[in-house]
Amino acid sequence: MDKFEYKIFNISREHLKRESFQEELMNTLNKLGEDSWELINVEGLNESSILWKVGETTDILFLFKRRKA
Q1: Which among 68, 58, 49 has a CA at the least distance from the CA of 10?
Q2: Which of 21, 26, 51, 64 has CB 3.0 to 4.6 Å from 37, enough for a Cys bridge?
Q3: Taking a C-beta distance cutoff of 8 angstroms, is the pair 3, 68 a contact?
Q4: Where are the beta strands (DSSP E) in the chain?
């Protein structure tokens, strides 16, 4: 039976605003891929306002898995 291990990579709203965000993200994803991590899900986390019931993305979570050695 195959066993897996998992990794969660979190990107905050402040990081999303950085000018170099896309390049940094691509470098990080490529490095994780070289280390056998496979991206299996991306989930945006939202913060809603009680008065306006409008959500704003505060973080993005990337979920990876790879086979245990």
Answers
A1: 58
A2: 64
A3: yes
A4: 4-12, 38-48, 55-67
53-69 pLDDT tens trace: 666 778 899 999 999 97
Q: Comparing 2 with 49, which gets the higher pLDDT?
A: 2
- Give the integer Cα–Cα distance in Å for 13 and 43: 13
Rounded CA gap, 57 and 23, in Å? 20
Residue 63 half-sphere exposure toward CB, CA atoms < 13 A: 8
H or E segment and range at residue 13: helix 13-16
d(CA 57, CA 54): 10
Q: What is the pLDDT of residue 50?
A: 62
Q: How far apart are CA 14 and CA 47, in angstroms?
A: 14
